[in-house]
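FORM 12-B: Structure-to-Sequence Request
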């Protein structure tokens, strides 16, 4: 039994579990306001996201080690920021959170691209990667807004908090662009442009990969 086949069943379960959790997190984000209870729930949810992300990428000690090196500082900064709110600590937590989402997404995409055939686990893995990319940019937007308050028009930090950035990230990633929340600072605009480009490239490359994997073999004449 090869290493890839050994880990294929755990991958299927971890991808599916993470996919359901990510969707649930996005759906309940409006409940995570600036109240103490909302911030505690957000920190606990992110902690669980780190655990599930590490479970999904933990195929080898090498992958686990890299993920742990990013996840542990992110987790520490997240809870320190909750206990003792500080701008620099919250920015560090957001940046590390974005880096962890990027790392897990890259691992998932590499798994999908190197498989000769695309099955259910690869589809869920690619879907998780897409959502993680959106969350990564949401953390980047949060960091940009903390670095430069007022970086986004239509964002009410007191009432909406992080849910605004998740909303803006995914309407940018999917190129919906409702216009009710817009980037105002040069940094925020640059991030939005990059996310829009990555979102389009991801869909194009993924569809090409899936079509290529399911294309029937050419018959020799």
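FORM 12-B RESPONSE
SEQUENCE OUT:
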């Amino acid at each position: 039994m090869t290493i890839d086949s050994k880990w294929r069943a755990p991958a299927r379960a971890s991808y599916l579990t993470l996919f359901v959790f990510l969707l649930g997190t996005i759906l309940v984000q409006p409940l995570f306001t600036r109240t103490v209870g909302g911030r505690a729930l957000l920190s606990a949810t992110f902690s669980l996201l780190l655990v599930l992300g590490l479970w999904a990428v933990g195929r080898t000690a090498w992958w686990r080690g890299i993920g742990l090196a990013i996840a542990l500082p992110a987790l520490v900064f997240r809870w320190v920021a909750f206990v003792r709110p500080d701008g620099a600590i919250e920015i560090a937590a957001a940046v590390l959170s974005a880096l962890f989402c990027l790392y897990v997404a890259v691992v998932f995409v590499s798994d999908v691209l190197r498989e000769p055939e695309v099955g259910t686990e690869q589809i869920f893995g690619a879907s998780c990667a897409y959502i993680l990319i959106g969350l990564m940019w949401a953390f980047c937007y949060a960091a940009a807004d903390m670095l430069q308050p007022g970086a986004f028009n239509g964002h009410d930090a007191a009432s909406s908090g992080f849910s605004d950035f998740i909303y803006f990230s995914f309407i940018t990633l999917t190129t919906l662009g409702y216009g009710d929340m817009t980037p105002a600072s040069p940094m925020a605009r640059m991030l939005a442009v990059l996310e829009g480009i990555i979102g389009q490239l991801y869909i194009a490359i993924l569809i090409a990969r899936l079509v290529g994997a399911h294309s029937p073999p050419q018959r020799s004449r």
